Amino acid sequence: MPDRRHIWGWVSVMTAMGIGSAAAQSPSPDLERLVRQDCGSCHGLTLKGGLGPDLRAERLSGRQPEELAQIILDGVPGTAMPPWRPLLSQSEADWIANYLLSRAPE
Ligand code: HEC
To answer: Domain boundaries in the chain?
Structure first.
């Protein structure tokens, strides 16, 4: 389980910054930070895998952004991957999916 307070902290930060409507534009350093901190808590700080699988572009290559955005919004039932729909809009999830697919190797 992610630390809910941590996540709700993010919601207020994101709301305060008005990210909800701006997220579709890129680049979005704030969403990028959310991905590293909140997704990174399971997927690894550099997203190369941990409790959750490797999310680096080279491993996700060939996947559709729509599919990844769906997983981000709805989670994977029966696994630790939580649904992010309460926290992220469709356009934010789309941004994250495209971000994951286009990240340069570190
Ligand atoms: C509490 C741990 C946890 C957190 C936090 C988490 N994930 Fe996951 N995620 C998982 C697990 C576990 C899976 C593997 C589910 C399965 O077995 O199919 C997964 C799967 C995924 C997948 C599918 C990968 C694939 O190869 O099919 C994507 C994409 C993904 N997560 C993105 C994210 C994003 C983006 C975030 C942050 C917004 C995030 N996850 C936060 C645990 C987590």
So the answer is: 4-102
Number of the ligand 1 atom closest to the C-alpha atom of 88: 38
Question: For tokens 């469709």, what's the residue?
Answer: 90
**pTM of this prediction exceeds 0.70:** yes
List the pLDDT tens digit at each of the 106 positions of the chain: 555 555 555 544 444 444 444 444 455 788 999 999 999 999 999 999 999 999 999 999 999 999 999 999 999 999 999 999 999 999 999 999 999 999 988 7
Atom of ligand 1 nearest to the CA of 87: 38
Residue minimizing CA distance to atom 7 of ligand 1: 81
Please state which CATH number belongs to domain 4-102: 1.10.760.10
Q: Cα of 74 to ligand 1 centre, how many Å?
A: 10
Q: Whose CA is nearest to atom 30 of ligand 1?
A: 72
- Cα-atom radius of gyration of the chain, to the nearest Å? 13
Please name the residue whose Cα sits nearest to atom 24 of ligand 1. 53
Instruction: Quote the tokens at residue 19.
Output: 């990210």
